[in-house]
Amino acid sequence: MHSVFSFAGRSDIDLGVKVTAITRPVKPVKRNVQTIIPGRSGAYIYSDGCYEDFIISMECMYTGTDPAGFRRQLAEWLGQSSDLVFANEPDKFYSATVWSDIPGDYVMSLRHFTLNFQCSPFARSAIQQATGVISTAGGAVAVQVQGTAPTPCKIVITNTGETTIHRLVITPQMAAMAFSNYLFNRDAPFNRAELAADSGNALTLGTADSPYTFTFAPGDVLVIDSETLTVTLNGVEDVSAWVVGSEFPALTKGLNLLQFAAPGEGWELGVEVYWADRWL
Hints:
six-stranded antiparallel sheet; 21 strands; seven-stranded antiparallel sheet; 44% strand; mainly beta
């Protein structure tokens, strides 16, 4: 008997479970909103780009010799939220919970039961990391995303220079072409003014002129988390510097280029980017 899945760090065969059938949707359902307009045929359907949780159902059979003991083990095993991993995709996992009840008489007498895992919309990888050093001379952090779904990220920025920064613009790009141009045209001037301009997909912290709303001094550590939509400076949450209309970065499949820009000269940033690839 070979393993089909593991949950909470234990495989099915560890508990004497044999999976006989799996019902697994190809993809989660996109969250759509339908609006009926009086006097107009059809409906207006739009989406915020988010997906619903979905159910993975498994028909199982107990192959051991102690149904009573197994019933207690099963309750302990499934009584938590944890990672669901399929043996044929060991590098991906779902955040999952078993919500539906499992009739005890089925386990005790028939030895057959159904597991219904409510899963997060995306399969995820382990946490990935990319690093870089950015300065007035230019530079960017390249992030290679393998997953098929957009993914949030956490950006940890340390002011490693000797200059206090009052405005910082972070611009993510689908960078296969942009990064190649940067690598092979290093003699071309690095247009920081262009990068510092506000754009629809840039995150801007701080105003351009005094009075300043953002002070990023040498040695300070800034953390931007696009999953929780938070900004912390030296461990204290503070979104007062966030410029309304700017967006938290999201990474997409392929090579992403995170570009950083600040006014003035002599500044330097140490950047760490953390993310988990996500698949539909």
